[in-house]
Amino acid sequence: MRKRFLRASAGIAMSAAMLSSAMPISAPAVYAADTVRIMPLGDSITFGMADEGGYRKYLSHFMRERGYDNLDFVGPEGSSSATFTYNGQQVTYDDNHAGYSGYSITDLQGGWSGKLNGILETMQSGDYIKKYSPDIILLQIGTNDIANGFLDGSEERLHKLLDYLTENMPANGTIFLTTIPDLGSGGFFGGDTNANIAKYNDIVKKVAGEYSNVRFADIHSVVDGSKDLADGVHPNTEGYEKMAQYWADTLDNFLGGSAASLTPVTIAQPVVTADASDSAKVLMSCDFESGADGWTGRGSASAAVDKSKAHSGSGSLFVSKRANDWNGAVVDLGYDFSAGNTYGFEAYILQNSAASLDFKLSLEYSSGGTTQYDKIALSPVKQGEWTKVENPSYTIPAGAENIKFYIEVPDDLSDFYVDDIRITGSASSAPGGPSTPSTPSTTVNTEKTTGKIKGDLDGDGMITSLDVVLMRKRLLSGFTDSKMKKAADIDRSGDTEIADLVQLQRFILGRIAQFEEVADPVNYDEPVEYEKSYNFPAVNKLPSSRDIPDPFIFMDGSKVESESDWWKRQAEISCMYEYYMYGKWIDGSDDETSYKINGNKMTITVKRKSTGKTASFDMVINRPKSVRHEGGAPVILGMHKGIAESTATSNGYAVITYDADGMFSAPGTAQDNNQHKGAFYDLYPYGNSFETQTGELMAWSWGLSRTLDALYAGAAKELNINPENAICTGVSRYGKATAVCGAFEKRFKMCAPSCSGAGGIALYRYRSQGKTYDFSSKGASSNYTYTENEPLGSLQASGEQAWFNGNFMQFRDVNNLPMDQHMLGSLCCDPDRYLFIIGSCVGEDWVNAPSMWMSYCGMRPIWDYVGLSDHLAINIHKEGHAVIAEDVEKMIQYFDYHVYGINPKMDLKELQTSVFDLPKNKDPFQDTLSSKWIH
Length: 935
Prior knowledge:
The chain is an alpha/beta fold. The chain is built from 23 helices and 34 strands.
């Protein structure tokens, strides 16, 4: 048996176990340079029952905070990236593991199904130890053995499992075998279970001592069965967090504080606690695990990282060669901290020169052109003891500039060590760069990128250490938000990388006054608000063309030659749709919106300020089963009911719907009867001029826009909804209205029109009638032939003409339209927004579903051109002229990923294609659609 001691006597074994736990331990040298693979292995507590992710998510986070960026959690379960909310902030963690609920050490009889599956047999069946080759295994097993009465024989079963693990691990592999927690009185098991757990834990300690590469760990000592269990068996949040802290300390000690060699970034990491309140936050933290963290010697002093002494971790800052008492260690606070604000300062200091020495925390700063000094704290430090010197409430003098923080010994020239330096402050005093000046060409932090300051990843208008934390996290886990990614591309190379993080850190520390860019920087342009202009040719003056219009050519024939040109062209397209098709968009500037909530009903009342007239309409509220998103539930606003509300609410989304045309629950905002009646037209009467001819699709959209007003006015707070993350949706005619709503109401984070057809997302110029498709991949016919598509004349007939304005009625041929509906979709192209097209392949002849797909294909070059390819998606379901549960499930996964960074269960690449892209169904026209376009 490899690495296993002789089991000659219990006395020898116990001695070895005690040595194993008491002696300082360190990781094999091979860990220093390579990624360390860690496998959490065990039963439901390892799995994370009662708190998804269990201790693993906290451990992954804690180790990264300590600088261990090259730890790789491995195992056959989970994924390499998951998220959870910790102290109000979203945290990404490595979710791979080998935790299995209900499992025992080896196969046994018992449990709910009559059999307890064994961890041993599970690892053997998949050859998982060799497959994942863990350097470290965190093994916690035995709860189900003991709870089901299998204390007897557990020692031999542990040996059997450990023998297998040690034989199949890498040569330098190490197993941490831990005890198990007590069970609580509210658990599933009773009797003398905890007494048997105590006996089992003694066995664990004994067995751990019988292997050279197995270490004893004691989770039992940190989990209190009386208060740290969620259900009497599995830890609650607090319990799992305690476990993670124990494991983090254990691993940190074992790895010898080797974070410096494991961390690819050797710069300081100001750590900010993630509490959203105005309570104390750690604004700067220096633990010297991965470098000097910006500290240097003051005067003649030398300041360097020393690995022989540490208050915590593996290193501290050693200050020596002090020729004068003011010589010590100093750090330039730069822009991080501001005059007049109050902060807490603390540092742990060790000296070995005298029985006691007074140490001083001091501030150096400029004021009125002269250098000034101020005492922060003065405290004695005893010989050989790490002592905290602190002032929890120190106000930086008014007018202070060029601020430096230093540590000195006023009356002695002794060497000393310093560690775990912290500066804390309230949220309102969090460090930040200078406010945005008016000369972006000369000051680093003024360049805006799609609504963000370069370097301002969190979008709070300042460059702070919070942005450094975000940068480090996203470099590890990837950027899910394109705005943040562009803000993080500090050198404008077109990619986010360590070089950007280095510049950001140097700027935060005041080492540089402006960012440097590469020789040929990428130009990130952003949407700009352009003044509206409706100076377009009359309908009868428009040329005719069978080609799908090139979205990159302005009406005057000039071409889009840059991203900034595109945003200008987008503004022109918006005005074209108002003028030629839907009528004027009413933006709410003349509206005063109020609301009343009564149960699941919300009545919205709008007063037009210029006339004093009022009108009301009702919304139905569907609350989520639980709010699982930070900042309140995201909300889906529907043009009608029946949009798979239960699917949305079960996933933590609120749904608010209304009867847009008042057919079922009057009043609506516009009756669908060509009479131009309803709440909207009560306030904005339909007239004879273009300015007063707002069609019903716009009117229905106005209703959702005013609903957003109500949410922002206070309804969102009452309902625990986040209006910043709102989605609009609807089907058929309301799908057309949804597309219009998303195009003009920019506050919707996502637009999800379903089965919108002609006048919605389908191209006018592409016909699918008479074409045959194979829908067998969707479980439908392999020989489905489309019949008639809805023609232009149908939209202009009495039943539908009220959806549009008068100018649209003048078109007699779709080839005269100066735009097509891929251009309507392009109005949703925005760095902070998303378009999610929904369609159905069966029974959608009239709606012309293939044309909706072709429109999507026509949109892609636009999104690609401005670098927003992942902001466009499509889902063509099998059948159902509706927003079905499948659509909502995929929509939510897409939205959760892009907006919240929550990993999806599905492959989101599915949303970049459809059944119409399959070889049997693909129309070659798809590949020539944009062949004549400029871009």
